[in-house]
Automatic annotation (TrEMBL):
<dbReference type="InterPro" id="IPR036237">
    <property type="entry name" value="Xyl_isomerase-like_sf"/>
</dbReference>
<feature type="domain" description="Xylose isomerase-like TIM barrel">
    <location>
        <begin position="20"/>
        <end position="308"/>
    </location>
</feature>
<keyword id="KW-0413">Isomerase</keyword>
<dbReference type="InterPro" id="IPR013022">
    <property type="entry name" value="Xyl_isomerase-like_TIM-brl"/>
</dbReference>
<dbReference type="InterPro" id="IPR050312">
    <property type="entry name" value="IolE/XylAMocC-like"/>
</dbReference>
<dbReference type="GO" id="GO:0016853">
    <property type="term" value="F:isomerase activity"/>
</dbReference>
<protein>
    <submittedName>
        <fullName>TIM barrel protein</fullName>
    </submittedName>
</protein>
<dbReference type="Pfam" id="PF01261">
    <property type="entry name" value="AP_endonuc_2"/>
</dbReference>
């Protein structure tokens, strides 16, 4: 496996400066934002698709530093019930897939999106309970009329261009657990897989090692994010894991995102790396930073140090008894 980073951390730096910084840390891969929530500070697909020279220079900037692009990321909500909002996210996704094909980047990361509860809705509706029965009716309508049709069509669009779709399992979106990912994958095809981020597993009460086992056995892990979560043992009993308070209210929140090793110890991260290897994942572990208690530089550096202790980089060896 290779250690990488989600470059949105360094959006305030010029691309070349950010790449130099990453390479100096000994990383081998970068995940680059191309629109949607991550923004496109380092990579504007529309511009690169129209300018072969700019495209060549962009590719060379990465490769000349001994790096690969693990994924292009355009996280958004293409199923948003307000058509103008959905169109912006959808267009970013389409352009990103087209650019990934040109750059021979194998994965585009995004969210599944979340629709409203009827055709004329204005806001997404994320049902989280099976009763009253209204919620089940909403969920069935969303999947049958929005989620499956969209990703069946646009999954084929990506597959035709040799690009896989890594959906981040994030609360607030229709695909947010291993089970919902596998449900969509069964309907829309193997082009759909997970951009598995353990931080979102922990706050949903899911063991990331088991999530890796479940998804990995189905060949459904396309990319992996490295971000931690700490759960406050007192606040969680006050607010529950579905704590709706602002992330800035860190003192009272039930949980918060942390840099790798500051929510769960290195042994747990080692278990995840071993589980990834066990199920055949041998791609990139991409560091993401959303730690409100650390600067970008400190959080990134700590994550690099902790992951270098546990990352399995060498190819599988032969067993002496075989």
């Amino acid at each position: 496996m290779k250690l990488g980073v989600f470059m949105v951390l360094f959006s305030g730096r010029k691309l070349e400066d950010a790449l130099d910084y990453v390479a100096a840390k000994g990383l081998k891969a970068v995940e680059i934002g191309t629109g949607g929530y991550p923004g496109n500070a380092h990579c504007n697909p529309a511009e690169l698709l129209e300018n072969e020279t700019a495209l060549k220079n962009f590719k060379n900037a990465v490769e000349s530093r001994g790096l690969i692009i693990s994924a292009l990321s355009c996280h958004g909500n293409p199923l948003h019930p307000q058509k103008a909002i959905a169109k912006d996210f959808h267009d970013a996704f389409v352009k990103t897939v087209e650019l990934a094909e040109k750059l021979e980047v194998p994965v585009v990361n995004t969210f599944s999106g979340c629709p409203g509860d009827h055709e004329d809705a204005k806001y997404p509706n994320w049902p989280v309970a099976p009763w009253p029965n209204d919620y089940q009716e909403i969920l069935d309508w969303q999947w049958e009329n929005k989620v499956i049709p969209y990703w069946t069509e646009w999954g084929k669009f990506a597959a035709d261009r040799n690009v896989k779709i890594g959906l981040e399992l994030h609360g607030g979106f229709s695909v947010h657990t291993p089970g919902t990912l596998l449900r969509l994958r069964e309907a829309a095809g193997e082009v759909i897989g997970a951009n598995l981020d353990p931080s979102h597993m922990w706050w949903q009460g899911i063991d990331p090692v088991q999530a890796i086992q479940i998804l990995g056995r189905a060949g459904a892990i396309h990319h992996f994010h490295a971000k931690d979560t700490s759960i406050d043992p007192i606040n969680v009993n006050k607010h529950g894991l579905t704590d709706m308070q602002s992330y800035t209210n860190m003192l009272d929140r039930a949980w918060q995102f942390r840099s790798v090793g500051f929510g769960h110890d290195v042994k747990e991260w080692a278990d995840m790396m071993s589980a990834l290897r066990l199920v055949g994942y041998d791609y990139v572990v991409s560091i993401e930073h959303e730690d409100g208690l650390m600067s970008v530089e400190e959080g990134f550096s700590k994550a690099v140090d902790n992951l270098k202790q546990v990352l399995i980089e060498e190819p599988l060896g032969e067993m002496w008894w075989v």
